[in-house]
C-alpha cells in the first residue's frame, strides 16, 4: 500500500502544538511531508443545531464557546446579524457602538497575543510566550472589570450592551494602550530580526493571492498574501468608518509576512482604542441600549452578516420564520475552518517542523472549526 | 610498598573521583533549580519559589531535593510494545560516558585536583562523549513510538554531524599548545594568554557545537516539544527519564569544563605568566588548590548560565537548516581556522616571530569589532514601514 520509505504519523489530536484537538494525518518520507490531511470534529458540539432550539438572547453565550479566545467578536457577529434581521442596526446608540468596537479591538489584541505566544513557542522561542501572556493578562483584567468574565465574555446584547462601563474602566484602557506599543516593540526585538526566526518563517507555506481568494481564506492569512481586504473597511459596521486605521498587507504570502501583518494589526488595534477613548467620553453615560421590545422576534426572512474577527471573516447566516423566538436555521462561517483548508496545500513538501509553524500561522481555534 | 601502590593507584583516585562526582552531581542537581529560576527571571515570571518554605529554606531551594524524590517515586512505565532490553539500556548508556569523563577533567592544580592525569586525556574525553548518542538512538528506537524514533534519528544525525566541527575546533588549540594533556594546555594558557584570543573562531565553533552536542536550544530538535512531543524520551518516565536528564546535564557540565580548560585558562587566572598561575597556586598549598578549583567551577558555571540564556533567547532550528549550518558553515570554518593557525605558527617558527601573538591580536580585534557592532546605537526601524516594503 505504501512505499517502504513512507511513514504514516498521526499528528494529534493529543499533541502539544495542534492548538487543541486537531488531528493531522501525515504521510512523511523521512521528515518531508508527502501529504497532510487535517481531520476535524473532535470538538463538535452541534452549536448551530442548538441555536434552533434557543431564543436569540440565549444563543449569545454559546457564541462565546466557538472561538473561545476571541469571544467578544463572536458576540458582535451574532448580535449584529440579529439586529440586521430585525432592521434595528441604525438604532444602536453611539456609546454602545463604541463600546462594541473597543471590546472587539481589545479582543483582537488578546487573540493576536495568544497567537503570537503559541506560534513562537511552537517554533521554539520560549520567552515571547510569557511576555505575550503578561499583556494578555491585562486585557483579560479589563474584560473582567467590564463583564465579570475573562474568557467567555457574553458581553453584548441584541440592541446594545448589557451594562454601562464601570467607573475608571476607560482610564484602565488608557493605561494599557499607552504601554502596549512598547510591549509590541519588545516582542519584535525578540523575533522580527532574529535570524533563526526568519529562517523558520520566510518562504514557509506560501499562499499566492489568487490561491488565497480561491480557497476563501480571510483575515491575516489573506492580507499576508497581499490582498487588501478587511471587512472593517470593505463592509463597514458599527462606527468603524469614523475611525482611522490602516490595513497592513504582506507581499510574499509566507509565514513571516503573516507574522508581520498580525504584529502590525495589534498596533492598529491599539491606535483604534486610543481614538475610541475620547469618543466614548463624549457620549452620554447610560445610553447603551436601543429601545426595542424585550422579546426578540425578528420578522420572516434570512440574512447573512459577517464581521472581521481576529482570525478572518466571521459570518452568521440566520433564517427566521417570523413566528418563533428562535432561529429556524443558523449557520456560522468560521474563519479558522475555511483557513484550515489550505493546510494540506501549504504543508506539502515542507518538513514536519514546518507543519507546526503552519498550524500556528493559520491561527486556528478548534472550538470554532468544529463548532 | 604494596600499601603505597594501593593508595596511589586505587584508594586516592577513587576518593578524588567520588569527590569530583559528588561536586558535579550537586552542580547538575542545582542546575535544574538555577535553570528554572533564571528562565523565570528572564521571562517575567517567578519560577519555582515555594518548595521548602515550611522548613525555612528560602527561594524554593528545596526543589533541588524534591525533584529527584519525585523521579524516584513516580511510576515506572514500560510500554507493552517496547523492545525491553534496549528500552532499559537506552537511559543507562549515555550515563556511563557522561560520568566516566569526570575522571579526566583537571579541576585544579595537579596532582591533588586531577583525578587521573593522562597525557592524551583530551582524546579520551572526545572518544567517551561521542558514545553518549547510542543510548539516545537505542532509547528512541526501543520505545516503539514514531515520535521517539524521529527524535532518536534526529539526535543521531545531529550528534554525528557536530562531532566533526567539535573535534576540528580543538585542533588549533592542540597546534598552539602542542599537547593533548589538559593540564599542559591550561598551563600554556597561563604562561601566554587564554586560547580564546588566538583561537577565537575555534572557541566560537566549539560553543555552537557543544550546544548542538547536548541537544540544547537552538539545537534541541531531538526533543523538540512542539514537534516531537518529547522526542526520544517520550515514552520514558520516572528514573529512566531522570537518567536521560542526568546524562544531558552531566555532559553539559563536561562540555563547559572542556570549554573552560581549552579556551578560558582552566583553574588559572593569569596572562603571560603573571597572576594566579599553577605555580603561584601551588605555592599556597591546599588553599591555593581550593582557590583554583573555585575559579574553575565559577568559570564552568558561567558557561552553564550561558546555556540557559541561549534557551531563553533563541527559536529552534529546522532539521535541514541545522545540518546546513553544521556541514556548510561550521566544518569549513573549522578547517579554515586550522589552516590559518597552522600557517601562522609555521611562519612564526620560520621567520622568528611569535605566531600566537599575531593570532591573539587578530582575535582581540574581532572581539572589539563585534562588541562595537552589538553596542553601537542603531536607528529604530518602525514596523509600518517594513510591512509596506514587504
Describe the structure.
The complex is a heterodimer of chains A (371) and B (390). By secondary structure, chain A is mainly alpha-helical. Chain A has one domain (46-370): Cytochrome-c3 Hydrogenase, chain B (Orthogonal Bundle), CATH 1.10.645. Chain A contains 15 helices and 6 strands. Chain A has helices at residues 47-51, 56-64, 71-86, 94-122, 127-147, 169-191, 195-201, 209-215, 220-224, 231-234, 255-282, 335-340, 343-347, 352-362, 366-370; strands spanning 6-11, 23-29, 32-39, 301-309, 312-320, 329-333. In chain A, the strands form 2 sheets. In chain A, strands 1-2-3 form a 3-stranded antiparallel β-sheet. Chain A has a 3-stranded antiparallel β-sheet with strand order 4-5-6. By secondary structure, chain B is an all-alpha fold. Chain B has 2 domains: 1-73, no CATH class; 74-389, no CATH class. Chain B is 69% helix and 2% strand. Chain B has 15 helices and 2 strands. Chain B has a two-stranded antiparallel sheet. In chain B, strand 1 and strand 2 form a beta hairpin. In chain B, helix 1 (2-42) packs across helix 2 (63-73), helix 2 (63-73) packs across helix 10 (238-263) and helix 8 (200-213) runs antiparallel to helix 10 (238-263). Chain B starts with a helix and ends with a helix. The mean pLDDT of chain B is 83. Chains A and B meet through helix 4, helix 5, helix 6, helix 7 and helix 11 of A and helix 6, helix 9, helix 12, helix 13 and helix 15 of B.
Amino acid at each position: 500500500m505504501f512505499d517502504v520509505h513512507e511513514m504514516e504519523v498521526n499528528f494529534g489530536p493529543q499533541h502539544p502544538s495542534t492548538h487543541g484537538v486537531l488531528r493531522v494525518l501525515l504521510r512523511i518520507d523521512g521528515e518531508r511531508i508527502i501529504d497532510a490531511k487535517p481531520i476535524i470534529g473532535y470538538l463538535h458540539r452541534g452549536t448551530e443545531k442548538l441555536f434552533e432550539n434557543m431564543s436569540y438572547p440565549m444563543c449569545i453565550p454559546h457564541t462565546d464557546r466557538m472561538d473561545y479566545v476571541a469571544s467578544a467578536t463572536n458576540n458582535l457577529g451574532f448580535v449584529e446579524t440579529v439586529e440586521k434581521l430585525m432592521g434595528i442596526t441604525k438604532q444602536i446608540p453611539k456609546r454602545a457602538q463604541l463600546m462594541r468596537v473597543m471590546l472587539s479591538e481589545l479582543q483582537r489584541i488578546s487573540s493576536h497575543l495568544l497567537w503570537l505566544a503559541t506560534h513562537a513557542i511552537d517554533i521554539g522561542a520560549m520567552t515571547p510566550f510569557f511576555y505575550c501572556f503578561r499583556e494578555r493578562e491585562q486585557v483579560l483584567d479589563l474584560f473582567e472589570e467590564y463583564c465579570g468574565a475573562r474568557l467567555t465574555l457574553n458581553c453584548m446584547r441584541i440592541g446594545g450592551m448589557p451594562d454601562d462601563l464601570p467607573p475608571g474602566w476607560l482610564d484602565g484602557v488608557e493605561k494599557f494602550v499607552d504601554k502596549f506599543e512598547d510591549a509590541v516593540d519588545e516582542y519584535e526585538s525578540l523575533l522580527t530580526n532574529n535570524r533563526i526566526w526568519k529562517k523558520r518563517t520566510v518562504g514557509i507555506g506560501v499562499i499566492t493571492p489568487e490561491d488565497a481568494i480561491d480557497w476563501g481564506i480571510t483575515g491575516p492569512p489573506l492580507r499576508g498574501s497581499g490582498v487588501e481586504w478587511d471587512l472593517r473597511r470593505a463592509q463597514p459596521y458599527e462606527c468603524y468608518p469614523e475611525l482611522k486605521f490602516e490595513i497592513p498587507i504582506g507581499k510574499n504570502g509566507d509565514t513571516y509576512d503573516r507574522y508581520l501583518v498580525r504584529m502590525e494589526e495589534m498596533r492598529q488595534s491599539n491606535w483604534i482604542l486610543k481614538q475610541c477613548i475620547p469618543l466614548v467620553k463624549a457620549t452620554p453615560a447610560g445610553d447603551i441600549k436601543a429601545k426595542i421590545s424585550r422579546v426578540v422576534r425578528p420578522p420572516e426572512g434570512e440574512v447573512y452578516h459577517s464581521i472581521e474577527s481576529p482570525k478572518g471573516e466571521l459570518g452568521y447566516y440566520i433564517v427566521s420564520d417570523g413566528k418563533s423566538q428562535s432561529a429556524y436555521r443558523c449557520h456560522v462561517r468560521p474563519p479558522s475552518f475555511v483557513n484550515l483548508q489550505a493546510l494540506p496545500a501549504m504543508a506539502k513538501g515542507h518538513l514536519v517542523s514546518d507543519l507546526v509553524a503552519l498550524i500556528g500561522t493559520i491561527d486556528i481555534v478548534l472550538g470554532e472549526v468544529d463548532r | 610498598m604494596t600499601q603505597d601502590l594501593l593508595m596511589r593507584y586505587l584508594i586516592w583516585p577513587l576518593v578524588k573521583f567520588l569527590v569530583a562526582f559528588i561536586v558535579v552531581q550537586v552542580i547538575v542537581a542545582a542546575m535544574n533549580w538555577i535553570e528554572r529560576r533564571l528562565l523565570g527571571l528572564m521571562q517575567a515570571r517567578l519560577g519555582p519559589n515555594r518548595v521548602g518554605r515550611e522548613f525555612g529554606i528560602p527561594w524554593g531551594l528545596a526543589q533541588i531535593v524534591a525533584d529527584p524524590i519525585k523521579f524516584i517515586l513516580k511510576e515506572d512505565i514500560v510500554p507493552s510494545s517496547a523492545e525491553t532490553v534496549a528500552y532499559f539500556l537506552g537511559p543507562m548508556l549515555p550515563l556511563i560516558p557522561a560520568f566516566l569523563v569526570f575522571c579526566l577533567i583537571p579541576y585544579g592544580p595537579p596532582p591533588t585536583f586531577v583525578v587521573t592525569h593522562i597525557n592524551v586525556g583530551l582524546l579520551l574525553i572526545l572518544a567517551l562523549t561521542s558514545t553518549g548518542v547510542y543510548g539516545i538512538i537505542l532509547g528512541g528506537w526501543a520505545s516503539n513510538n514514531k515520535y521517539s524514533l524521529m527524535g532518536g534519528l534526529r539526535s543521531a544525525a545531529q550528534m554525528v554531524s557536530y562531532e566533526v566541527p567539535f573535534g576540528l575546533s580543538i585542533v588549533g588549540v592542540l597546534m598552539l599548545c602542542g599537547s593533548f594533556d589538559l593540564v599542559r594546555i591550561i598551563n600554556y594558557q597561563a604562561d601566554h594568554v587564554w586560547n580564546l584570543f588566538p583561537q577565537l573562531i575555534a572557541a566560537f565553533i566549539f560553543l555552537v557545537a557543544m550546544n548542538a552536542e547536548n541537544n540544547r536550544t537552538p539545537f534541541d530538535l531531538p526533543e523538540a516539544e512542539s514537534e516531537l512531543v518529547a522526542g526520544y524520551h517520550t515514552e520514558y518516565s520516572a528514573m529512566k527519564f531522570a537518567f536521560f536528564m542526568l546524562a544531558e546535564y552531566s555532559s553539559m557540565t563536561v562540555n563547559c569544563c572542556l570549554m573552560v580548560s581549552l579556551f578560558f585558562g582552566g583553574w588559572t587566572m593569569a596572562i603571560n605568566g603573571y597572576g594566579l598561575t599553577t605555580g603561584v597556586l601551588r605555592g599556597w598549598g591546599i588553599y591555593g588548590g581550593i582557590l583554583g578549583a573555585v575559579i574553575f567551577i565559577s568559570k564552568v558555571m558561567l558557561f552553564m548560565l550561558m546555556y540557559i540564556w541561549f534557551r531563553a533567547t533563541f527559536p529552534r532550528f529546522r532539521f535541514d537548516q541545522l545540518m546546513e549550518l553544521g556541514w556548510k558553515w561550521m566544518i569549513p570554518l573549522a578547517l579554515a581556522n586550522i589552516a590559518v593557525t597552522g600557517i601562522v605558527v609555521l611562519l612564526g617558527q620560520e621567520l622568528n616571530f611569535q605566531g600566537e601573538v599575531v593570532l591573539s591580536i587578530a582575535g582581540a580585534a574581532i572581539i572589539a569589532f563585534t562588541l562595537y557592532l552589538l553596542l553601537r546605537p542603531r536607528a529604530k526601524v518602525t514596523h509600518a514601514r517594513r510591512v509596506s516594503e514587504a
